[in-house]
Amino acid sequence: MTDQEHFPTSDQMAIAALRLEIEELRDAVRVRDEFISIAAHELRNPMTPLLLTVQSMRRVAERHPGTAAPITTGLARLDRVVLHYINRCNSLLDISRLSSERFGIEWTQIDFAALLRDMVEELRPYAERAGSKIDLTAPVALPGVWDELAVRQISENLLSNAIKYGAGGPISVVLSVEQGTEAPEAVLLEVRDHGVGISIADQARIFAPFERAVTRQQQSGFGLGLWVVGRLVAALGGTIQVASIPGQGSTFSVRLPQDQATRPR
Q1: pLDDT exceeds 80 at position 54
Q2: pLDDT score recorded for residue 49
Q3: How many Å apart are CA 129 and CA 126, to the nearest integer?
Q4: Residues 9, 36: one domain?
Q5: Percent of the chain's residues with pLDDT above 90
Q6: Are 197 and 112 in a shared domain?
Q7: Range of the domain at 63
Q8: Which of 19, 241, 257, 264 is the most buried (most CB within 10 A)?
């Protein structure tokens, strides 16, 4: 064989590079179109029950001006619907912020334990509505330098995920400090549920955008929660792992550096 047969020409290399770029662009367009379709569906769905609830409350108020109970019940339902809608909008904002490699991290002194306790109390009513009880184990205080919004989003997404897929079982949340002989001191956040669990095959893809371990018919949402968590954990210089057995539940473990000298610059 000649050398020309062994090695591609510059034109062939240029054509191969162009084909690769075309495929990448096609994939980008496909992901964009899929996202637009999902976003339109998810943001449209809550509006109908929201409107019907408001209309129903108005009719009750007009017919029974002295009756407060129906109004209270309607407002409670309205509160849940609006909350779900806000969460969906926040997911869209997360995509815009986290898709950029240059999204900002604001390092500040916070108390991880206090923040986590507040988050658990905020989500406890929704856990109880799903039939789950949240058990929190944390030190009285756990100060450190992190991004407060990032820590809040990590904690909220993992807890919301446990409530959503926990099948009404108990949820365990543990915050502690790991002291290793080789690695620097790290904060460990563990969130465990006793729900549907995740197969080995699904564990390899759940941190990618638009991925989920169940179908959209089983659970609504964008499939972005764990992707957001993964991006934020990486930005804080940490790691996230999942251990799960289908039908027995899942444990998500997040490790974040506590030593300020080890944080990303």
Answers
A1: no
A2: 66
A3: 5
A4: yes
A5: 27
A6: yes
A7: 45-98
A8: 257
